[in-house]
Every structure is written in structure tokens, then in C-alpha cells.
Amino acid sequence: AAPEEESEVITPPEPFPTYQTYAFQTEIKRGRFSIVRQCREKVSGKALAAKIIPYWQEDKQAVLLEYQVLRKLHHTNIAQLKGAYVSPRHLVLIQEMCVGPELLHSLALRTSYSEVEVRDYLWQILSATEYLHAHNILHLDLRSENMIITEPNLLKLLDFGNAQFYTPDKFITMDKCSDYVETMAPELLTEQGALPQTDIWSVGITAFIMLSANYPISSDVPCEFLRTARKGKLRLTRCYAGLSGGAVSFLQSTLCANPWGRPSASECLQSPWLQETGLDNRQQALVTFPTTKLRNFLMEREKKRGLLCSKYGLMIAQ
């Protein structure tokens, strides 16, 4: 069941549909700082997802930031917030139910996939990213684990627990990112802090993994990671054979060590590679990548995820 303590419905400036009570059901996913359960709106019977986030009182404002971000968002590729309430110990975010595998798992379920399919998913990720940046919001956790593929092949971006409102004079540090050094942008390891280009690095990492089943830089040690990233030498030999020149250029630009050298989300969407159609499209579809290596990559990543959940010892009232 949901947490039992007395709760307060959060009323946004633009009201949600009339608040209803929810029946909490099976656990869907457990992360470092939250648990997601399936829930049902009692009056309508509609299936929804409830993200339950425990917090200490001194962290309340930081936790509420996720709600403040989500209530502003309406985009096809972003899971929609339907309601929210807060108790003395938990924030509960009620969102649309997104049923399907995570991005990389959706690829790994196939026997093979092509560069064209990778481009389609990147287009959807960048469309959501462009929208966020236009609203001065940084996601700051654009890992594939936070992307669900629903039918029919629609990508939904989830988990805004790291999201921040951005202004050029605001210095944003990301302590919670240190658990995932392999996906951290170099500027997060310096005194520069997060920028819109930080999200573009994450998109580049996701693209690299889809096109290689590997990380471009492998190091769990921040200082070693930063030293390697600053050299700006991508190990493109880790990528699958047969990549187009457009794919290589996309990886090189989005994974530029200097954030100011990376394109914006809008510029990425206008890049020749993501705009290509016709004959080149068909040629790229002929080159396919077997998924054995990707499945092995995911097995190792799931082990790390399990260790992180154990490390944080997340407990939610049953």
C-alpha cells in the first residue's frame, strides 16, 4: 500500500483533473532514490504509475523540484504528470503509465538492428531535449535507463530527479551523478558545472552505446575519466563496423570534451545524419548490428545497478 501518513495534495497554478485517491499495486522499478509502483485511479479505474520518493525534511525543497519541473512539461516524448501529493516523509508523483522495455533492452530483444533505428530513437530523445532546453530546463540524467519504448516504437523520457532550472549565471553541481562516472560530462568533474551542452554529452553517450555496446571511456575513477575525456580521443574502434560518416561525425561532435564545442539539441536535429532520407537510408538499413554484445553489456550494467540500490538501502513503507 501507499505510505499511510497524512498527505497534502499539491495544487499547481494550472489544476490537475480533480484529485482522486489511488490504489497502489505492484512495484515496477526500484532506483537509487525512489520506487515506482503501478497504481489505479479509484474512480476512473485508469492505470497510472506512482513514483514514491522518500525524503528528510531538510531535503524537501530539493525533492519538490522534480514536481515543479514536471508540471510545466507537455511533450509527446516525456511521461506526463497527472497528479502529485506530499506527506511528511514522501513525495508521490502520479504519471502516465509507460509500458515497455528500456531503450537498450528494446534493442537487445531483437536479433539485430540498424543505424536507421538508432537514428529514429536519437531523434525522439533530441526532440524532448530541445523542448526542455527551450523551457530553460536541464534533465541531467539522460541515460538510456530513463527511456522507455512504448508501442508503437514511441520513446518516453522518465525520471526528472536530477533536473534543474537553468540560467546562464546559475552554477549547477551534480553530486548524484558521481555514481555513473562513465556517463558524466567532463564539465561536471570541474568547477564549470552543468550547462545545456551537458545533456548533449549524455545523448552522445547513449548514441555511442547503441552503436558499439560499450562506453567511449571506461573508468570508475573520476580523475582518470577526466584525464581521458580531456584528451578528446574517442575510441571509435569500439563501435560496430560499417558506421556511416554521418554517425561518426555525430559522435565526435556530441562527445567533444569542450562543452562549447558541442552542438545544441536544435543543431543536432538539423544535422545531415538525422535529416537523411532516401537511398542513403536504405543503404544504412542494410548494415545491421547483432545484439549479443549488447546483451552482455546490459548484464554487466544491471549488476552495477543492483549494487547501487543496495548501497543506498532505499526503503519504502509497504
Automatic annotation (TrEMBL):
InterPro entries registered for this protein in UniProt: Kinase-like_dom_sf, Prot_kinase_dom, Tyr_kinase_AS
UniProt xrefs under Gene3D superfamilies: Phosphorylase Kinase, domain 1, Transferase(Phosphotransferase) domain 1
Protein name: OBSCN protein
Protein kinase domain: residues covered: 22-274
Molecular function as annotated in GO: ATP binding; protein kinase activity
